[in-house]
């Protein structure tokens, strides 16, 4: 036995890697219907992109703490929005930061 998942990971459970033990990032956009944050079964790259407030190839980093926090009506919570590639604050910076 090798521990390798011969048929790949069950993407509906939110895991990836050869042995399907790594969990997809909390920063991955959630598939609300399936109630999972899907990612590529081998690389872990988020299938639906990053959820607002997260950046990086695998959406593993939160936006900077100096980004202005704005209430997001869709997600029903305060979020620091930033560009998911550059990390630039999309709603501006907190006072005193630029």
Structural commentary:
- This protein is an all-beta fold and 98 residues long.
- It is 0% helix and 16% strand.
- It has no helices and six strands.
- The strands form three sheets. Strands 1-2 form a two-stranded antiparallel sheet.
- The model has no long low-confidence stretch (mean pLDDT 86).
Please describe the biggest sheet, giving its number of strands, its sense, and whether it closes into a barrel: 2 strands, antiparallel
Which descriptor suits the 3D outline?
elongated
Report the mean per-residue pLDDT as an integer: 86
Cα-atom radius of gyration: 16 Å
What is the succession of H and E elements? Answer: EEEEEE
The percentage of residues in β strands lies in: 15-25%
Parts with pLDDT < 50 across at least 5 consecutive residues: none
Biggest β-sheet: strands ordered side by side in the sheet: 1-2
- The separation of the N and C termini measures 55 Å
Counted beta strands: 6
Number of helices: 0
The chain-level structural class is mainly beta
Please give the share of residues in helix.
Answer: under 10%
Brief characterization of the structure:
This protein has strands at residues 15-16, 22-23, 54-55, 61-62, 69-72, 77-80. With 98 residues, it is an all-beta fold.
Topology:
Elements: E1 15-16, E2 22-23, E3 54-55, E4 61-62, E5 69-72, E6 77-80
Antiparallel strand pairs: 1-2, 3-4, 5-6
Keywords:
two-stranded antiparallel sheet, mainly beta, 0% helix, elongated, 98 residues, two-stranded antiparallel ribbon
């Amino acid at each position: 036995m090798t521990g390798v998942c011969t048929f790949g990971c069950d993407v509906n459970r939110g895991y990836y890697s050869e042995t399907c033990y790594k969990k997809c990032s909390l920063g991955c956009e959630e598939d609300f219907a399936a109630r999972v944050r899907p990612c590529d079964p081998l690389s872990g790259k988020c299938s639906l992109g990053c959820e607002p407030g997260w950046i990086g190839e695998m959406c593993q980093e939160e936006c900077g703490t100096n980004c202005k926090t704005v209430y997001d009506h869709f997600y029903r919570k305060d979020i620091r929005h930033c560009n998911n590639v550059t990390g630039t604050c999309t709603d501006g910076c907190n006072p005193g930061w630029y």
